[in-house]
Write a structure and sequence with these properties.
The relative contact order is 0.30. The longest helix has 19 residues. Helices cover 24% and strands 36% of the residues. Strands 1, 2, 3, 6, 7 and 8 form a 6-stranded mixed β-sheet that branches. The two termini are 13 Å apart. The chain has one domain: D-tyrosyl-tRNA(Tyr) deacylase (D-tyrosyl-trna(Tyr) Deacylase, Chain: A, 3-Layer(bba) Sandwich). It has 151 residues and is of the alpha/beta class. The protein contains 3 helices and 8 strands, in the order βββαββαβαββ.
Length: 151
C-alpha cells in the first residue's frame, strides 16, 4: 500500500458527473493506492501511522502534533497512479496497481481503519470515478508512506 499524505488548509474532491463533492477544512488529504498482496496488516499499519504522524505545529511552531491532536479532518482519495512505473518509455505502466476488484474493498477498509484511529469520520472520493481534487497545501508538508518499505 502506498499513500501520499499532504497537510492542508483545505481540500476537496468533486465528481461532476455524479454531482458529488466532499471537502475538509484544516487537516490531511490522503491519496491511497493498493497493490496485489496488500492485506489488513498494511491497511492497519498505514492508518495508524497517518493518524499519529506529528506534522502539525505545536504552540512553539514545532511539528509535534498529529491530525488527531489538532482535531483535523481527513479526506481520502483512491489513486492507483501512485504505482506508476516510468522505467521504460514515456507512458507510465500501472501493472503494480491492484485491479478494482481488489482495490475497492481495500480502499473502503482503509477508510474505516482511519476512522477508527481518528475517532471521527473520514471524507472520501468516489472509487474509480473521474475526480477533480483541489487543495491548499499547508507548509507545504507532503509525506510518502509505503507499507512495504516502512521508512
Amino acid at each position: 500500500m502506498r499513500t501520499v499524505v499532504q497537510r492542508v488548509g483545505n481540500a476537496s474532491v468533486s465528481v461532476p458527473a455524479e454531482n458529488y463533492e466532499a471537502s475538509v477544512g484544516p487537516g490531511l488529504l490522503v491519496l491511497a493506492a493498493f497493490e496485489d498482496g496488500d492485506d489488513a496488516r498494511d491497511l492497519d499499519w498505514t492508518a495508524r501511522k497517518i493518524s499519529a504522524l506529528r506534522i502539525f505545529d505545536d504552540e512553539a511552531g514545532v511539528m509535534n502534533l498529529s491530525v488527531r491532536d489538532v482535531g483535523g479532518d481527513v479526506l481520502c482519495v483512491s489513486q492507483f497512479t501512485l504505482y506508476a512505473s516510468t522505467v521504460k518509455g514515456n507512458r507510465p505502466s500501472y501493472v503494480r496497481a491492484a485491479g478494482p476488484e481488489i482495490s475497492r474493498p481495500l480502499y473502503e477498509q482503509f477508510c474505516r481503519a482511519l476512522e477508527d484511529y481518528l475517532g471521527k469520520s473520514v471524507k472520501k472520493g468516489i472509487f474509480g470515478a473521474d475526480m477533480k481534487v483541489s487543495l491548499l497545501n499547508d507548509g507545504p508538508v507532503t509525506i510518502i508512506i509505503d507499507s512495504k518499505i516502512k521508512e
